[in-house]
Amino acid sequence: MSAYFAFARSSFHSQLAYRNEVWANIFGKLVQVFARVAIWQAAYAGIGGIVADGVSLQQMVTYALLGGAVMGATRPERIIGEIGRSLKTGDIAVWLLKPLSYPLYLFANECGSFGYRLMTQVIPTIAFTALFYGMLPPATLFDGLMFIAFWALSFTLLFLMSALFGIIAFWLMTSFSLDWILGALLQLFSGLLIPFWFFPEPLATIARHLPFAWVVYYPNAVYLGRLSTADVWLHLGLGLAWAALFLAGVLLLWRCASTRITVQGG
């Protein structure tokens, strides 16, 4: 495990070399958050009220801020791109000679990047926008603690989805468009742009049961107290089941990809 910790630490420190990029990323995140909040302010102004379907404008502002935080700390395109570059350069074959797991290396690398983005982009962005717009606290202490658990689950699921899509590149021989496909699915079915309580039926029911819902929607719904205690535990269990399923898929695909590299490489 010390080797993977070293990978995570190296990933964190390597990004410190690009300090000017921090300000550009913070500015970009601020623009995204301001745009989301402006959309909901305009939508609520259009209906002439501050409550729609039992959801207040301040709750939607908080949802928009949290949605940017949850998604902003993880970069699926970076994970898929890393696999694509390793495949293109041939560096991926070197991992077959190492007593290490390539998927675990990717996870450790992303953990280091996650810590870096959390401290330099997510927290400053939330702090600034919360002071500007106001941000609701967790509905209860329980909801606040469970939000952290759901956020950790969100990070794990998002990594596993990205790794799964990235490993598919072994059969396509390119990662081109894979990150776009995953990004489109996340934009639509994670609840990042529109919470599921505004979705029409039966699309809302379908979206709530897809694994993408655990990336943004459920962490935010827990934070805002939109789920009962029983539902919180239920959906945490379902999310863990999805994570276990994706983990099995990643390990299986990596084993098949390793065999494919060995056969093609002689």
TrEMBL record:
UniProt keyword terms in alphabetical order: Membrane, Transmembrane, Transmembrane helix
Spans through the membrane: 114-136, 148-173, 180-199, 232-254
Keyword Cell cycle part of the UniProt annotation: no
Entry superkingdom: Bacteria
UniProt keyword annotation of Transmembrane present: yes
Annotated InterPro entries: ABC-2_transporter-like
Protein name per Swiss-Prot or TrEMBL: ABC-2 type transport system permease protein
Native organism taxonomy: Bacteria, Pseudomonadati, Pseudomonadota, Alphaproteobacteria, Hyphomicrobiales
